[in-house]
Amino acid sequence: MTIRKATVLGGGVMGSQIAALLVNAGLKVKLLDIAIDEKDPNKISKKAYEIITDKKRPQLFDLNFASNLTYGNFDEDLQGEDDADIYIEAVKEELEIKHSVWKKVKEVAKDNALFATNTSGIPIEYIAKVFNDDERKRFFGMHFFNPPRIMKLVEIIPLQDTAEESVKRAQLFAEDKLGKGVVVANDVPGFVANRVGTQTMNDIMHRAEEEGISISDTDALTGRSIGRPSTGTYGLSDLVGIDIAVTVTKGLQQVPGEEKFFNDTKIAEKLVEQSALGRKTKKGFYKKEKNKILVFDPEKNDYVEQSKPEFPILGKFSKDLKENMDVIFNADDKAGLFLWKTLRNNFYYSALNVPKAASDYRDIDRALVWGFNWKKGPFQLWDLMGFSRVKDRMKEELGELPEWIEKRTESFYKDGETIERVTPVSDFIESEIWNREDSRLSVVNTDQLLLKLQSGNNIISDGFAKDLIEAVDLLESEDFSSMVLYADGRNFSVGANLYMMKKAHEMKQVEELVGPAIDTLHKSFNRMKYSLKPIVTAVQGKALGGGCELVLHSPFVVAASETYIGMVEAGVGLLPSGGGLAEMSDRILSTNHKHDDKQQSMSEVLTNIGMAKVSTNAYEAKRYGYLRDTDSIILNVEKRVEAALNKARLESEMNYIPKPEGKYIALGRDFKALAEGMLDAQRLGNFISDHDYEITLKIAEVLSGGDIPRNTYVNQRYLQKLEKERFLNLLQNEKTYARISHMLETGKPLRN
């Protein structure tokens, strides 16, 4: 049965966010809570609805989706017969309240409806006491991680008698419809992620206190160098909430057999007593004061400035986790041994929880990667450090290991194996045409091409632009049906090579070094846009600057819902040079709607690009004009390449008609004059600087078609020429050079 309608029980922080997630996924959702006011029985759920649909900070991808969300209360809306396919309960963590709600739900629910609780602390079996045998078959825990829209992990916790079909339905729903990564967990305290994640955080804090390692020093050691969030252990606890970590720890200390793995942490308990619970109370282990981040000093019972960590081992770490694991394994200094014990203890506790918390060790890795934002899970890191030598050393130091580890003689993962449940891209590849520094071109599904952007940081390099031209030439000249372009990593592409721009300015060779690269970029993007066969780009994360322009020129796009697209060149004193301005003009000027206000549409484009605006999701990218109605949006980012291949196949089989090179009437001097007036007002009001004015006016000149009368015909190549001229002019400006230098040095924009 397809899940199309859902009822969310509880309009608190988690309930409202789960409701928003379901609406974003295309479901019709009813959000219910208790009636506390006879005159306004929907007071609580209505407040949640207003937060979800807030115009300034909506939780929905598109406010038009709000028509699929209704609100009500438990008394009036849980009567008669209800048609929800799934009920997700997220009420207060009190058993009596949960029982009360579920008693009402089961009286109105249809016979095949699924029942799910989002509890994180109460055993699922306890909540299930209100259900009969048949109802228990459809009941399970469905633990979303906060915030549900962003966090990938969903833990499904079945009862002993939950039907396998119910678990399967819930898993497919969470993965395919909501785009989540599912871990099936056992009904043990903390389930999987919180259980293992909290244990290692507790272990680190306890040993840091014992060994006299400060809060900031501990975080410097236990962050990116071991594949964990850059916040480090204490910083992450601040983010999650110190009280939550302490509560989970105290709870697990009461579980027989677990108490030896969970120790009291004096500093955390001291902060909880002082109601310093982390970011939600604006102070915890850290506190932001003006422009400084202060750290808590337990001896002074106050916040002090952080001192720079001086551990020599930190200088030996790189971005390569495998190398870091080797450094740690061979270390014999205080910091190195601290890190070895951190990893060793995590490996050991993770192994103990198979099959106690999860039946598959991969699910423990999935839980920590998807729920705690680790780059690699415990067993993946164990492999990186060396399965056999780690096992031998652990046995020597800890004694007997779990039986399944004692029997195991090979690494946990085979080469190329990942924790993802989707078909890996490598499985689609049948043969390789080339594997170069900036791109890799392969044949998939017999007659499709797959082009991977793989330059450093996925920048749109000159080498990639040339490879793209060659790939399109091959697509058109050989017996291939279509092509898909994609990139690995969190972000699709964050633009061009700023270092090259800076160097060209310093060498005073902007025209010679950058000019030809722009010509190549224009040629490559045009080849893609006007290709005789369909090309689909699969995009995720950030697609900025040149990355955005590549997306703009793709005939079709499959975008993950959490895709952030924008032309941000103004932030570094430049304007888009890859044809982005010309393409946006093309999209506006080539429309023939009689009532379409092209001048207004162009003004919005000018504002967005001049202010370096980036869409907050793929649906907003459509509203900005960066994506079109013909582009597809999916919630499961891991399926983007597969979806793009399917879309490319469909287009190739449906009489694909290439985009014709057209001409259109420019807005000319009229639009430029309008832009000048708008920018003058902003400059006089001190909203923009003189350099902002200059940059944005040059953008307006390109969008208007230059110094020509309105109603003059122009084409895309002409507008690209205007782009190039103004880009090169700005790159020779000292204020632009200052912006580029500042961005490269600090990662932040300079407003000068």
From TrEMBL:
Catalytic activity: a (3S)-3-hydroxyacyl-CoA + NAD(+) = a 3-oxoacyl-CoA + NADH + H(+)
Descriptive protein name: enoyl-CoA hydratase
3-hydroxyacyl-CoA dehydrogenase NAD binding domain sequence ranges: 5-187
Known pathway: Lipid metabolism; fatty acid beta-oxidation
Domain 3-hydroxyacyl-CoA dehydrogenase C-terminal: residue ranges: 190-287
Originating organism: Jeotgalicoccus nanhaiensis
Family to which the UniProt record says this protein belongs: Belongs to the enoyl-CoA hydratase/isomerase family.
PROSITE patterns, per database record: ENOYL_COA_HYDRATASE (PS00166)
E.C. numbers: 4.2.1.17
InterPro entries for this protein: 3-OHacyl-CoA_DH_NAD-bd (IPR006176), 3HC_DH_C (IPR006108), 6-PGluconate_DH-like_C_sf (IPR008927), ClpP/crotonase-like_dom_sf (IPR029045), Enoyl-CoA_hyd/isom_CS (IPR018376), Enoyl-CoA_hydra/iso (IPR001753), NAD(P)-bd_dom_sf (IPR036291)
Cited Pfam families: 3HCDH, 3HCDH_N, ECH_1
Alphabetical keyword list: Fatty acid metabolism, Lipid degradation, Lipid metabolism, NAD, Oxidoreductase
